[in-house]
Amino acid sequence: MSENNKGILLESGTNELEIVEFGVGHNKFGINVIKVKEIINPVPITVVPHSHPSVEGIITLRGEVLPVVNMATVLGFPPSQDPKQDKFIVCEFNKTKIVYHVHTVSQIHRISWNQIEKPSEMYSGLETQIIGVIKMHDDMVLLLDYEKIVVDINPESGISVDQLKKLGPRTRSNKSIVIAEDSPLLRKLLEQTLEESGYNQLTLFENGQDALQYLEEIVKTGKKISDAVQMVITDIEMPKMDGHHLTRRIKENNELKELPVIIFSSLITDDLRHKGEVVGATAQVSKPEIVELVQYIDKYVL
Fold first, then answer.
1. For residue 163, which of 293, 297, 265, 298 has the smallest C-alpha distance?
2. Which of 114, 135, 153 is the last residue before a domain boundary?
3. Does residue 198 share a domain with residue 129?
4. What CA–CA distance (Å, rounded) separates 109 from 19?
5. E strands in the chain
6. How far, in Å, CA of 172 to CA of 198, rounded?
7. Cα–Cα dist 228/224, whole Å
8. Number of independent structural domains in the chain
9. Each residue's pLDDT tens digit, 87-103
10. How far apart are the first and last CA of the chain?
11. Which residues lie across from 145 on neighbouring strands?
12. Are 221 and 114 in contact (CB under 8 A)?
């Protein structure tokens, strides 16, 4: 995907996104265009001994060595019937580049986060890779937790409590923080690491809409928001309402706008930082930089 194509990317905070639809086996999946650098035909792969079963090996692309993850293996599907027709989706997030090997790439859809439904409890839980379901005509397009796929392959790339040792001993804080994060795995990790760093008054939501509703309810009771909540931390990609839209709604609301909002997302890159600035984010931190996140909380919490 060329950089000019990113021009179709929407102004900040409209609660919309564009997804690239791809196929593995008979299933359709989507990935946020923002994560996609380009889509290429398969190139020869160098196999790396003793690597994770889902990692096919490495390729060289314009001088960079990138790992190739076979999505059929990740999802437990049979291999491609016609490997010559397969595609490589080159992605960048969490400050990492990775190649997803898929069977087909069909089109780009522009949708609202509202259209993305949370998967039913029956097949969701901490272990699931599905974070959203989009009903499109007669089809279902599944949104996967691409960060979790990477962390499952390389646990070192995730959030870890150990990193907080750099900060030295911490005292308990009575500050109340609202967190919006749709990944069950990341909610749990954030809760553990922030408690470890002294912040244990946490209220967690799985999307921006629920978090905003909670804040608005507090205001309706006549309470001053800063007496009840001292900070909001939000992911960007979430069903119902994304983090940019949530930030914008907080900053446009006279009763809420004094709340500091930190965006904590795998999508914080130099290219995309301006989107958070436009909607009024107090700070933006790329996952998995938990130490940086805690330093910003210390600095900006009311």
1. 293
2. 153
3. no
4. 5
5. 16-24, 27-32, 36-40, 55-61, 64-70, 87-93, 96-102, 104-112, 116-117, 130-136, 139-144, 173-180, 199-205, 231-234, 261-265, 283-286
6. 4
7. 7
8. 2
9. 999 998 888 899 999 99
10. 41
11. none
12. no
